[in-house]
Amino acid sequence: MRKLLFVGLSVLVVLCLSVVYADMTLTNAGGESITFTDEELGTIITSGEKPFEGVTITITVNEGGPKGGISGPLYEWRDVWEKLTGAKLNIVEIPYAEHYPKVMTDLLTGTGQYDGFMIGSDWMGELVAGEYIVPIDKYMKDPRFPKWDPESLPPSIRTLYTWGDTWYGPLNDSDGQVLYYRKDILNNPDYRAKFKEKYGYEYNVPPKTWNELYDISEFFNGWDWNNDGEPDSGIVMHLKVGAQGMYHYASLSAPFCIMPGEKVDKYHNVYWFDPEDMKPLINSEGHVKALEFQLKLAKTGPDAQVAWSLGEAWDYFLRGKAVFTFSWGDVGSLVQDEARSKIKGKMGASILPGSLEVYDRSQGKFVTFETPNVWGNTTGGSWHGVISALSKNPEAVYHLLAFHATNKISLWNVQRGWTGVDPGAKFHFLPPYGTASLDDYVANGFNPDDAQEYLKAYYDNFFAPNIAPYLRIPGGNEYWVALDRHLSEAYTGQASAKEALDRVARDWEDITNRYGREEQLKVYQESIGYKAE
Amino acid sequence: MGLKSGRIKYPFILPSMIWVLAFTIFPLIYSFGLSFFRVRLGKPATFIGLNNFIRILSDYKLGNSLRVTLMYVAITVSIQLVLGILIALLFHQEIKGKSIFRALLILPIFCTPIAVGYLGLTIFYEEGGPLNSILMSLFGWKVPWLSNPFWAWVAVLLLDIWQWTPFCFLVILAGLQSLPEEIYDAAYIDSSSEWEIFRKITFPMVQPVVVIVLLLRLIESFKIFDVIYSLTGGGPGTATEVYSLYTYRTGLKFFDFGYASALGYVLLAMVMVVVNLFFRRVRQVYE
Predict the structure, then answer these.
(1) What's the distance, CA B11 to chain centroid?
(2) Region A178-248+257-353+471-528: CATH code
(3) Domain extent listing, chain A
């Protein structure tokens, strides 16, 4: 009898546990399934109560369509999320160049047309300063919502999702530019020998400094090194005005003009403005040298690249027409798509090179380093969702964003190039740096060598000892646009490097004065962690 | 009774009055007011008198936009007009399949300018675009249509001329077709030179129509925005950044509404001056 009771109780316990910890398999629009634990999904879903029944939320996102970068995952998981929560998701796609003005118009006029926005992190200063978006800390601790792992983010990425210690958005994209190169071409013994004969030294793979990269790019530019019957290029960049071309400059220039130091002060770890008076540093000698270098480097790529946006430049690299490009994580995963790429299995990737010569503003001259001055970067949007302060349904918005931030959906996104979601969290990386599995990447179409190169490059970049400062102040978009248009003048020969950057500085002063120097200075200091002594 | 009193007309004209007041007069007055304020959405507007207009005088970026706009207006309008007259003269003759060609020729007018810009992106695409592919196969070279400031200019001009020449052609052709035949019968008795007849009879008679076309195109060209916005975004650099694009960015991208309003009024003043000078000259000629 006792035995029977014990068996009965055991069965009951197992049944109860299986109810409490029942896994749930969700299938997206593309027919792919992921199995979640109840804890991962949160009690709103597992209880089946559908508290958002009848609620419609509207989210803005960069135009890209159902298979586009950042917009794609929203479409992919919309049906299943709607079914689980009872809410309706309205996705509003806005062209990249129009997105920021549309969002700001909605917020500034108090229209409240949108409940949430998939924002670029450089909008954060304006959004937080104006209290246009709501903090999410209280939701993050709430077991009702899907569980995601903020601790998995490196400090460099975490900074972009927070202001001070306050969180504003769950994990989505992690942007940073790394160097992509043709491993097969650079390791070709004939090419290496010819290079040595011409330049008098053997190059490193990957190159350690920008000057070394220039030599290699110059060597490979203008002849048919891939035997396709057409001359090929050394490097390719996307330099079109209004199409994120200025981000190349931001990543490349950091090692020429940022002096590393133990803390942020007037002369160390600053890039954009003098943290004491908001005077632009953009036309300082370090910056001018960096732009002169970029102009020289651009000559080792196709002429048309000054009118190319991301897609065209990436495509050129994917078709095997350039030895180098430096861009976002999208490239690494797009290389794996054999419909678009001819270089799967031939790709190398690394953190961006450094510079041995760095401008030291405290001494007013260039100083020479013994080892390259290397800076990791978070250049780009690190596009992620935030909740509008005008939304009547902030919980539904957070639920959606947290659902997309769960480790499993986040990893699913990262393993597919078209999603535009790039790796940054520890669970995206391979051991010993993270917890992801190489087999999993391979099962999702990655070449194993490419996957290892790619993920190591991003790990090195986001966990680098030095991370280039990110611009997050009110008017951030206007500062970027000014930089973009004048850089384009330099790229197209309408202005010299110095002239172009002087114009940027002039515009930036004008913007700062209009926004109010004191207010801007305060936000800028906060955003870069500067503390006056 | 009501009909006789004439009151019945008011309900009929009311909608158009509301339309004009709401969408023309009100924005005009409102933006004029804005031009005297520093306006940032979300913050109280500050009265700054003429400062926005004074700022225009010291805005170094505006010089480029003005230069680009004036060049654009001068080149496109004159080419469209000349081509319009020539094509109209051609279609004023008896040619086979005239109605089909005429219908085909006027098709570009019906395209949305923003779509024309995006179409241009495809046509002028430098690596393997249709135009460069033809040039490569015929001559072995290609044109840096969108990456070179000069050629980007040419691309914009070509698109605009392609789209608006048919408008000039159509209106001038209508003018030509309304000319009385008898005059030509008499003229051919005195002269057999087509050029003489065109110079001394056709052109003077069709000139009022040409003037109207010129005026309409001048006003429209000063406001050019869509094609450039979608084709070059004002680039490369600032090579094709016209006045309207600069004003749009100032107001709707950077939310500097006071300054954008002042810029808008300066453009309005410029167009009015040009049109008035033009009208005065025309009046002198006809009087």
Answers:
(1) 35
(2) 3.40.190.10
(3) 16-175+380-450, 178-248+257-353+471-528
What is the ipTM score, two decimals?
Answer: 0.75
| Cα atoms found within 13 Å of the Cα of residue A407, Cβ hemisphere only | 19
What is the domain partition of chain B in residue ranges? 59-286
Interchain CB contact of A528 with B (< 8 Å): no
B237–A495 C-beta distance less than 8 A = yes
- Quote the mean pLDDT of chain B: 90
The pLDDT of residue A19 is: 45
| Chain B, window 79-138: residues with a beta carbon less than 8 angstroms from a chain A beta carbon | 126-127
Q: How many C-beta neighbours within 10 Å does residue A96 have?
A: 18
* Residue A162 · residue A153 · CB < 8 Å: no
In this structure, are residues B230 and B114 in contact, taking their beta carbons and an 8 Å threshold? Answer: yes
pTM for the full model?
0.84
Contact A307 B236 (CB under 8 A): yes
Flag whether pLDDT at B67 surpasses 80.
yes
Pick the CATH number of A16-175+380-450 from 1.10.540.10, 3.40.50.620, 3.40.190.10, 3.40.50.2300: 3.40.190.10
Strand ranges, E, within B127-254 = none
Tokens of B124: 């002028």
- List the structure tokens of B56: 């225009």
For residue B126, the chain A residues in CB contact (below 8 A) are 303-304, 307
- Tell me: pLDDT of A100 over 60: yes
Element (H, E) at A287: helix A285-298
Q: Residue A494's closest chain B neighbor by CA?
A: B237
Contact assignment for A307 to B146 by CB distance below 8 Å:
yes
Instruction: Give CATH for domain B59-286.
Output: 1.10.3720.10
- Tell me if B235 and A305 make a contact (CB, 8 A cut-off): no
- Residue A455 burial (CB < 10 Å; 0-12/13-18/19+)? buried
**Sign of the torsion formed by the C-alpha atoms of A164, A168, A170 and A175:** negative
What does the alpha-carbon distance between residue A132 and residue A124 come to, in Å, rounded to a whole number?
Answer: 10
Burial class (CB in 10 A: 0-12, 13-18, 19+), A502: middle
Phi, psi for residue A327 in degrees, rounded to 5: -160, -160
Best CA proximity match to A63, nearest among B118, B41, B237, B234: B118
Q: Do domains A16-175+380-450 and A178-248+257-353+471-528 have the same CATH topology?
A: yes
The answer to whether A493 faces chain B, any CB pair under 8 Å, is yes
A308 neighbourhood in chain B, CB within 8 Å:
147
